[in-house]
């Protein structure tokens, strides 16, 4: 019978956030001390703007909670549909913009129309380490630039609405994927009114953004990660290969990394140069002059907040002068802690039925293996079988259960295979979940991920390592098995392995069961995850203070300009 260890959340095991605050209160840098700098009076009126690309509404909602907690009035403008719903769910606002009891008082406005293609599958069609990937990049180096242009073409309605909204606010903060639409609205208003432009800040929800890295001086060191082209997996932040930096193998690896960096960086710069032409056409239509370097030009011109500082990125990551690099934001911490004092508060976060599955039914010590590959990855049938059948079979007798977050459309495609292998669901709700084998496998269609990770029940997180999943798992002290699909996920996976909080999942998920059992028995992996969680918590505290200082210092002087 395989032994499964329970991974404890350090915040819950020893008294929640209060324990960590006491533990680190005597450190040289006490991140829990209040900021002594003067605060704006009265409070600022802040407009946050998000796109509906996967994970972006959630990142903006976390920022909204932070700014609201700093005593400022916050309004979030989001495309209708899933984006606005995600923001409302995260900040605790009802569908009629009415704050829920005890929640943040944040207004959510539906602005424009939904424009993102739903569930873009980011999985590369070739092995990212191969020459085939390089030639695929040469043949089609523009997918990200094309996507941004398509998004901006669809954002004209939001642009018009923002020009009516912006004058009522002291400062505007927008996610990077929509910065040209928002910044164009700010610039257009300034020209029309012959007045200084409204203060505007660009939020980047991950530190590996290729546009940000490539948009600044060529004098920088070559970027460590180029996320939109295939070779990011060959760019670990340090040479951790067997034999070390000074051996022949280490030297060969260094040369290989530099080779791919130069090629990928050159292709990416060419792609964004081409994209800039379309951006200038759009600006001309809006009555604005050309913007040098196109989309990246906005990031050079405006102040930026970069989420995901240490420990989520290397400590020596180059940072441009207009960028404030801060730690990850933890919604649990923003709401006042992640430990639950009662079953009612636990049910509020998880939902009553999921809470009962995790904590009730006689399973007082249920160990949960949480599997989620994000909204942008579509699994193959073989990968689906590896999770739903082979992994469940490998865990027999271990006392562990599998909670699998899966889009309903993909779950429906995999259901015939699951029913054939496992029998019909023993319990189900067509709109929410299926349970197989008496609850040993539970498939949820929409999960409160951060609440699950902080539940104290999750022993391992099998993940694509999107940046949100990466930071949330690190903050919860949950070890990871990394199975990246594309974009920044390769870089996040490399960084998580360097930090010692993740192991690589087998290619194609072949042999997933043995890999999971091995990870569950890895004492060092569990211990390192707990240590990094404490560092991430302190980073988030410092980050919150830094975000507020940045926004306040930019907005306050502009309030007194006549």
TrEMBL record:
SUPFAM superfamilies recorded: UDP-Glycosyltransferase/glycogen phosphorylase
Keywords: Glycosyltransferase, Transferase
GO molecular function: UDP-glycosyltransferase activity
Domain of life: Eukaryota
Name of the molecule in the record: UDP-glycosyltransferases domain-containing protein
Segments of skewed composition (Basic and acidic residues): 11-21
Alphabetical list of InterPro entries matching this protein: UDP-glycosyltransferase, UDP_glucos_trans
Annotated region (Disordered), positions in chain: 1-44
Species lineage: Eukaryota, Sar, Alveolata, Colpodellida, Chromeraceae
Polar residues compositional bias, start-end: 1-10
């Amino acid at each position: 019978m395989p032994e499964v260890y329970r991974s404890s959340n350090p915040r819950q095991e020893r008294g929640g956030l209060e324990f960590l605050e006491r533990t680190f209160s005597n450190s040289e840098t006490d991140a829990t001390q209040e900021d002594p700098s003067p605060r704006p009076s009265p409070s600022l009126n802040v407009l946050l703007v998000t796109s509906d690309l996967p994970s972006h509404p959630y990142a903006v909602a976390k920022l909204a909670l932070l700014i609201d907690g700093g005593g400022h009035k916050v309004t979030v403008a989001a495309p209708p549909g899933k984006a606005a719903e995600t923001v409302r769910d995260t900040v605790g606002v009802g569908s009629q913009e009415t704050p829920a009891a005890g929640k943040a008082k944040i207004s959510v406005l539906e602005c424009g129309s939904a424009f993102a293609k739903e569930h873009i599958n980011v999985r590369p069609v070739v092995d990212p380490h191969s020459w085939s990937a390089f030639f695929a990049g040469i043949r089609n180096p523009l997918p990200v630039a094309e996507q941004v242009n398509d998004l901006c073409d669809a954002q004209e309605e939001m642009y018009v609405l923002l020009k009516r909204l912006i004058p009522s606010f002291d400062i505007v903060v927008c996610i990077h994927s929509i910065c040209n639409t928002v910044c164009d609205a700010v610039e257009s208003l300034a020209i029309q009114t012959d007045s200084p432009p409204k203060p505007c800040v660009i939020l980047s929800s991950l530190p590996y953004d290729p546009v940000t890295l490539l948009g600044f001086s060529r004098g920088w060191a070559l970027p460590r990660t180029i996320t939109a082209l295939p070779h990011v997996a060959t760019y670990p932040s340090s040479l951790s290969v067997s034999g070390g930096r000074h051996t022949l193998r280490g030297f060969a690896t260094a040369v290989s990394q530099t080779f791919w960096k130069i090629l990928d960086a050159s292709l990416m710069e060419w792609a964004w140069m081409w994209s800039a032409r379309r951006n200038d056409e759009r600006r001309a239509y809006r009555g604005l002059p050309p913007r040098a370097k196109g989309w990246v030009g906005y990031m050079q011109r405006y102040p930026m907040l970069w989420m995901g500082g240490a420990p989520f990125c290397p400590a020596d990551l180059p940072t441009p002068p207009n960028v404030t690099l801060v730690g990850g934001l933890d919604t649990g911490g923003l709401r006042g802690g992640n430990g639950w004092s009662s079953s009612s508060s636990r049910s509020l976060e998880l939902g009553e039925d999921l809470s009962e599955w995790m904590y009730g039914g006689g399973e007082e010590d249920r160990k949960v293996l949480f599997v989620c590959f994000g909204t942008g990855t579509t699994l193959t049938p073989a990968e689906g079988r590896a999770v739903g059948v082979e992994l469940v079979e490998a865990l027999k007798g271990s006392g562990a259960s599998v909670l699998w977050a899966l889009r309903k459309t993909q779950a429906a495609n995999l259901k015939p295979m699951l029913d054939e292998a496992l029998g019909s669901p023993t319990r189900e709700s067509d709109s929410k979940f299926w349970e197989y084998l008496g609850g040993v496998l539970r498939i949820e269609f929409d999960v409160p991920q951060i609440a699950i990770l902080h539940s104290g029940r999750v022993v391992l997180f099998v993940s694509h390592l999107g940046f949100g999943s990466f930071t949330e798992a690190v903050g919860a002290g949950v070890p990871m098995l990394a199975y990246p699909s594309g974009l920044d996920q390769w870089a996040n996976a490399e960084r998580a392995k360097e930090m010692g909080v993740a192991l690589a999942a087998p290619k194609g998920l072949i042999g997933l069961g043995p890999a999971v059992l091995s990870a569950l028995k890895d004492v060092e992996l569990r211990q390192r995850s707990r240590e990094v969680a404490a560092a991430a918590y302190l980073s988030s505290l410092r980050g919150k203070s830094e975000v507020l200082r940045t926004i306040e210092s930019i907005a306050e002087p502009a309030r007194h300009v006549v």
